[in-house]
Amino acid sequence: MLKPAYAVAAAIALVAAAPAAVKSAYDFRMTAIDGKPLPLAKYKGQVMLVVNTASMCGFTPQYEGLQKVHETYSAKGFTVLGVPSGDFKGQEYGSNKEIADFCESKFGIRFPMAEKAHVVGDAAAPFYRWAKARLGDENVPKWNFHKYLVGRDGQLIAAFGSKTKPDAPEVTAAIEKALAATRG
Fold first, then answer.
1. Labelling 172: which of 5, 13, 138, 163 has CA 20 to 30 A away?
2. Domains of the chain, each with CATH number or no CATH
């Protein structure tokens, strides 16, 4: 039997190794904002822009740009996936219902939204731990509305910081390039 200190160390090593064992973003399962399962495998072969969102942030108006790029490219195999988080100064509502109501009433959001989750630190959702392992500390969200672009093969292509708007030329060019890639 392992001593408690060794058991804790073994558990930490297992969690740390888990993101490296994942082959693509499609291996992750989230929960949708309405409580239903949201396996990312549902988007296999598509390009995704995964964004940690917040309802009470100076960058919250980016919801408009996120909806715009979602509408512009969705017919070509693209989706935005919002992941609400209160990790940065608690700038997100407490409940998923409040978040969903806000996104619908203020911005008419139609792209998929996950339930509220942590995106940084030890409690970060598995997708975010994987992204950190793949892209390094310099590409971890530093604030709300950090964006990860995932290619048709489920691999991370790029990360865009909070100040980069979703419809900025560098983001739309990266989306268009990813969409032009052969389907995986």
1. 138
2. 24-180 (3.40.30.10)
